[in-house]
Fold these 2 entries.
Entry 1:
Amino acid sequence: MEIIHRIAMHGTIARRRAFERLGVELLRSDPDDESSDPFVYADVNESHPNWRDIQALLKQWRLPDVPHTEFTDQEIDAAEWAALSATAHHGYPQPRDDEFGYLEVTYDLADYCEKCGVGARQRAPFRMKGEPRWGRRHVLQMHWVYDRLFVKPDVWSDVFAPCGVKSLPVLDAKGATLSTVLQLDVPVAARMRCDGLPSEACEACRRVKFNPVSRGRMPPLITRHGESLALTEQWFGAGASAHGAIVASHELVEVMRTAKLRGVQYHPLE
Ligand SMILES: [Zn+2]
């Protein structure tokens, strides 16, 4: 596994030179930006020979540093469970009245906390603006909704249905059923061993939410109830966003990878 840090900043000449001296090649977001502090970025592995000095500069200048982990095929193949997420997000859940109108339409909010986002339970189909533009993808997620996966109907019937995963319809903004997309029905059926993970307790509802795991493997499951695809009981996220982790069994991951599904990434559990 490689832990990779995305560094991004407005790079003054002094800052760019300091990073270049440490062997970090900063790329311009806009190659035509001729200003003295263009927006620049780089992906740096923790295995970089100067990583400690690079990290010291990031701290000194209080620059954002977002890590993620890339796993080898062997590490994914060897995992008993892996968390799934889409490689890109597509569109926003509808309706967008007051931005978050979809919450009342889609969820039972009796147990929901606006402050931390914990407690919403899906009670109705999601709504999209229209049929998704799939491109070369087979799997997608929508913005804001990090614990639901959407697939093409033939992908559901060929890959997920034989593994016992059920599907739910997806509607358009007016309530008509869409024909080129299904939601995977993922029951809340897995408990993860999260003790020791950084977490925050909500000021309003006191419930605990864990910081998303971006370095290394996710913790192992303690219990699960026989499903090949399940949501964790635990909530993850920051600010007002909270979501469960979608975990898939080794068998399901193997079927998905044999089918060469595009648009999904695998994050092994310990
Ligand atoms: Zn709360």
Entry 2:
Amino acid sequence: MRQHTIRKPVGIEGVGLHSGKVARITLAPAPADAGIVFRVRSTGERIPARAESVVNSHYATTVGVNGTRIQTVEHLMAAVSGLGIDNLDIEVDGPEIPALDGSAKPFVALLAFAGRVQQSARIRPLTLPCPIRVGGGGRWIQIVPAERFRITYTLDNDHPAIGTQVLSWTPSERSFVEEFAPARTYGFLKDLGLMRKNGLARGGSLDNAIVLGNRGALNGLRYRDEFVRHKMLDLVGDLALLGRPIRAHVIARNGGHALNIELVLAVQRAVGLERRAALEVAAAAENARRREEFVTAPGLATI
Ligand SMILES: [Zn+2]
């Protein structure tokens, strides 16, 4: 499998879900092995789309460096990952990625318009050395080694419009585009006042989120189980911060951005440790081989 970038630059603008401020993003091709990199227009600061760049994961995933921040990167990251784009330059003029319709669908359309081009470098998927679990009680995520990437998600909520929603998915580009990218973010009307007081959901409206009142959704749903689909979309976006695809089965229950990022960091530690352990094993084997040569040489000399 080869790496991909986009064919030509494309841009879009809109209001940020949390900041309520208008921002413009411009996506441009990037060289092989560059990865996904955000570039802040006002400061020129470069922020790699990696877990190490995450500075806040409360309600949305925020990346930053040296005090410069870009909020709510997860739906754009999900679209980039879902369409198999490995290298991309994302210039951001504003504090937050535009919410657009609250899903990844408009980003998918934008990337499709940009076109995709294959690069010469290969994709190097990550292999998980051991199962990992983060969280506890009713909120946890577990990841286990597997042949193919797969997500199984359980969402429990006592709101009558949500209830218990369970879905298992082995992502393909087509199923991503048709069944997951259009799933929108959601919020509860009763939380809106407090969220806005805390600087959240200031750009939120019925145009970019499913709003849940006491009895049900105030706007129509795109899927009967749109809520769990959106949680899985968020997970895809946050897992893209690994920088490489992973061969593993992710099993989640009531996760969120904070747990997603905790998982990504734990996977990175495990993969790093495994790589270090493999190097140590190779070094030990090499030492043993040299020792054997050293030991056998005098023996041979006595023949
Ligand atoms: Zn989301």
